[in-house]
Amino acid sequence: MAAENPFKSILKSLEKPDGGEFGKYYSLPALNDPRVDKLPYSIKILLESAIRNCDEFQVKSKDVEKIIDWENSAPKQVEIPFKPARVLLQDFTGVPAVVDLACMRDAMNNLKGDSNKINPLVPVDLVIDHSVQVDVARSENAVQANMELEFQRNNERFGFLKWGSNAFDNMLVVPPGSGIVHQVNLEYLGRVVFNTNGLLYPDSVVGTDSHTTMIDGLGVAGWGVGGIEAEATMLGQPMSMVLPGVVGFKLLGKLRDGVTATDLVLTVTQMLRKHGVVGKFVEFYGEGMSELSLADRATIANMSPEYGATMGFFPVDHVTLQYLKLTGRTADTVAMIESYLRANKMFVDYSEPQLERVYSASLELKLEDVEPCISGPKRPHDRVSLKEMKVDWHACLDNRVGFKGFAVPKESQTKVVEFSFHGTPAQLRHGDVVIAAITSCTNTSNPSVMLGAALVAKKACDLGLEVKPWIKTSLAPGSGVVTKYLEKSGLQKYLNQLGFNIVGYGCTTCIGNSGDIDDAVASAITENDIVAAAVLSGNRNFEGRVHPLTRANYLASPPLVVAYALAGTVDIDFETEPIGVGKDGKKIFFRDIWPSNKEVAEAVQSNVLPQMFMATYEAITQGNPMWNQLSVPSGNLYAWDPKSTYIHEPPYFKDMTMSAPGPHGVKNAYCLLNFGDSITTDHISPAGSIHRESPAAKYLMERGVDRRDFNSYGSLRGNDEIMARGTFANIRLVNKFLKGEVGPKTIHHPTGDKVSVFDAAMKYKSEGYDTIILAGAEYGSGSSRDWAAKGPKLLGVKAVIAKSFERIHRSNLVGMGIIPLCFKAGEDAETLGLTGEERYTIDLPSTVSEIKPGQDITVVTNNGKSFVCTLRFDTEVELAYFDHGGILQYVIRNLIKS
User: Fold this and answer.
1) What does 826-873 look like in DSSP terms, one character per residue?
2) For residues 715 and 753, is the Cβ–Cβ distance under 8 A?
3) Which of 746, 842, 745 has the alpha carbon at shortest distance from 801?
4) CA 282 to the chain's CA centroid
5) Tens digits of per-residue pLDDT, 28-81?
6) Are 617 and 328 in contact (CB under 8 A)?
7) Average pLDDT of the chain?
8) How far apart are the first and last CA of the chain?
9) DSSP label of 740
10) Rounded to an integer, what distance in angstroms lies between the CA atom of residue 492 and that of residue 180?
11) DSSP-derived secondary structure letter, 479
């Protein structure tokens, strides 16, 4: 059991300059170990956490030594425990997390344990930002209208979350309409340094959203985890992680005029994807850091999931302290943060000579080499230089169907579709923009690109340019501060004039909550097979995510979103072709509407003020009238309503006993699905709209729910019945069994019938058959979606055999007790001659002590094939979860025993 902290001798007082003390802290310099001085800053945060939490039970002295010896131990892939300071949730992932916690209380009760032990032991902040949809756009009334619809659809979910904030300790719920979780984290929730009962320590956070990494721009160590891992963290379990390598990324020089932070992040994303940083930290340094505002850093940190890193970390320096003051943190708080970090050698002072840090690998970028660009049409790391965009677009039309191809026949590429838009004659061609959205935490937290977009709008309006009325334009800021500085600058009216009215404060289009596009436009696209485009300032553009009808989706800076909306097409060379015709009949070019860096900097300097942040975040805690009027049940145990389509008691702990079930192998399993590379969590568990002919739609209609009231999969994640039916329900799913046909179906092998994935899975289950999934590289990339593991578990999937897994998804599979296996290097289903029509047997020892992390496992098929895979249980702790049937079962049994 837990013992006294063996490092208590390095607990020191941190004195205030004017007498008294800020508090006590564990002093890293007091270790007197030269290895500590050379550690990357990001690793020092792991080290401090291990020292502070060392009890020789959950965290041991040998774990501390592994981290101190990082230079030698990290290449050996050693395992360490980490206890983050807090947990961050958004509502799509937060609702199922609170459902699980409520269900765990019931399970504790049933096993005669103390249900109050199911309580967060660290602060949990939940921001409701994923529910607002762009139902109403291009209207002065859009914010209010969309919020009313949001509350109508989500009344029950919101009531449940409000119940959770009362029933559980340490849980703050930030109501709808407040902003996007990562921007609220950056501007308000981020502590940088905690002072808890007089003990000072660095802020660190895990979140159930992969873009939690945005906080790394503030010098706070944070990254995305699966919901089930986050729940275990809340309940005091240390996270088991492999001590990561750290890639040093040196920034030099400064950005050229007219180049934005978005151009920079898309360049960095492409560089790091190419280098390969999955499972690693990236730490930024170099003289170019002084040229990057904190908002620019946060933009780069935000897209860590897109370049594949666990973190994109910017250590705290003077720029960080200035930002903390700008965003309304008190002078005392900022003084404490600076004093603590300086005392613990975690502060970067560029006025002093820099000690050379040790990195696992190094990259370098001259900022002046970055050029304007966008990314797409189907992946965030497929960067296209703006000057090459027209050529690239035509290549995409020609190329065979793939990440960079639509295979449109040459004779159809110039097709023009005539249609009527509310009585106005209209035309649509391949590449025409039908959605233009300024959206997402990645960019709306950055005043330079937001005011840059507004300046583009002003110049365009002054010259007489307009956006075609059938393009769905929207502006969804990540916090109320954006509205305040756009209003103060006098520039919001120009955005409104072009149709970029504010539609709400949430993620909207970036997560697929783009709302419907006009029926006339939708019909013109579907009836004529037009490859229509969306341009958004988001961070994800996987096919089928932004909108079912936009097959080409490009990520761009907010000012470029405005420029493409004005042009009306992505099939344009901005250098040589006009964007439109002005009021005097003169051709207007891109260069005529693009602001200089000086103009943008002046707009930021005079319009972004500390009192805006203070006023916005004072108001947040007071909620809004619709939230405050929600009536919620009291009591610590939730009263489940069996008729509810939103909140349903999940079956994970049904018939659970105190003894662990032990490991399971796979016997004569059928292959449910056979995939190629880059299957994302959007493919596995879509968040967007529910297709009218899907199993989930059928389930809802059988319960009297009108199609208009279906809401989205993301908002129904509190109901396992719907989410099981929504697993692999993405309309763009490519399953090799369907021989080129795209959609959420598969073959039920015993009969040869082509049916929905859900129906096939239920058939296999009723017949008593196990199932597995075959996949290619990067299986489970994209959002940190625990339903992408919970769904397959409920479908009866016992194992996934892939070329490689994205980090968070692999740990989610482990958390649900699904076996992750990797083909050996150079092998995959094709090279091994597997069609997926075979039956698969995976023999595992019956006691967990006989299984080792990362060991070789032989898979045998019924037609005599046999191949060796790597078992991707990466740590002993993960094997313990597997032994117990999943992470939550492990936690419940341990809490009862303790």
Assistant:
1) T--TTTTT--S-SEEEE---SSGGG--TT-EEEEEETTS-EEEEEE--
2) no
3) 842
4) 17
5) 999 999 999 999 999 999 999 999 999 988 899 999 999 999 999 999 989 899
6) yes
7) 94
8) 10
9) T
10) 20
11) B
Phi and psi angles of residue 338, each rounded to the nearest 5 degrees, phi first: -65, -45
Q: Are 85 and 204 in contact (CB under 8 A)?
A: yes
- CA separation, residue 168 to residues 87, 120, 123, 163, 822 (Å): 14, 7, 11, 9, 39
> How many angstroms separate the CA atoms of 581 and 602, rounded?
29
Prior bond of 305 cis (ω within 30°):
no
Q: How much is the pLDDT for 726?
A: 97
Buried/exposed 712-747: b ≥16 CB within 10 Å, e otherwise: bbbbbbbbbbbbbbbbbbbebbbbbbbeeeebbbbb
Tell me the pLDDT tens digit for each residue of 563-607. Answer: 999 999 999 999 999 999 999 899 999 999 999 999 999 999 999
Residue 23, strand partner residues: 14
For residue range 718-738, list pLDDT tens digits in order.
999 999 999 999 988 999 999
Bigger pLDDT: 785 vs 648: 648
Q: What pLDDT, on the 0 to 100 scale, is given for residue 262?
A: 93
625 contacts: CB under 8 Å, gap ≥ 6: none
Distance CA 802, CA 799 (A): 10
In tens, the pLDDT along 144-181 reads: 999 999 999 889 899 999 999 999 999 999 999 999 99
Measured CA angle at 613 (ends 612, 615), to 5 deg: 65
SS3 221: strand
Query: 299 near 443, Cβ under 8 Å?
Result: yes
User: Cβ neighbours of residue 826 under 8 Å, at least 6 residues apart?
Assistant: none
In the chain, count H helices and then E strands.
Answer: 32, 34
CA distance 778 to 161: 33
CB 127 within 8 A of CB 673: no
Pairwise CA distance, residues 806 & 811, whole Å = 9
Q: Is the pTM of this model over 0.85?
A: yes
Residue 375, C-beta contacts closer than 8 angstroms, at least 6 positions apart? 266, 269, 270, 381, 382, 383, 384, 541, 554, 555, 556
pLDDT of 708 > 90? The answer is: no
Cβ pair 61, 6 in contact under 8 A: yes
Which pLDDT score, from 0 to 100, does residue 1 have? 55
Q: Which residue, 720, 810, 629, is CA-closest to 95?
A: 720
pLDDT at 876: 85
CA distance linking residue 63 with residue 230, whole number of Å: 21
* Structure tokens, 747: 């073959």
Stretch (H or E) spanning 494: helix 492-497
pLDDT at 2 over 70: no
Task: Give CA–CA dist 176/391, Å, rounded.
Answer: 42
- DSSP state for residue 807 in the 8-state scheme: H
Rounded Cα–Cα distance for residues 53 and 202 (Å): 13
DSSP 504-530: -SS-GGGGT---PPPHHHHHHHHHHT-
On whether the CB atoms of residues 206 and 187 are closer than 8 A, the answer is no
Q: Which residues contact 739 (CB under 8 A, 6 or more apart)?
A: none
Which tokens go with 53? 């939490």
> Tokens at residue 317, please?
């320096």
The packing angle between helices 807-815 and 887-897, to 10°, is 50
C-alpha to C-alpha distances, 298 to 194, 219, 364, 442, nearest whole angstrom: 20, 10, 19, 8
Residue 850 clears pLDDT 70, i.e. is over it: yes
- 8 A C-beta contact, residue 840 and residue 822: no
Cβ neighbors of 67 (< 8 A, separation 6 or more) are 43, 46, 47, 50, 73, 80, 243
Collapsed DSSP state (helix, strand, coil) of residue 222: strand
Cα 343 to Cα 13, 22, 222, 348, distances in angstroms: 10, 12, 22, 12
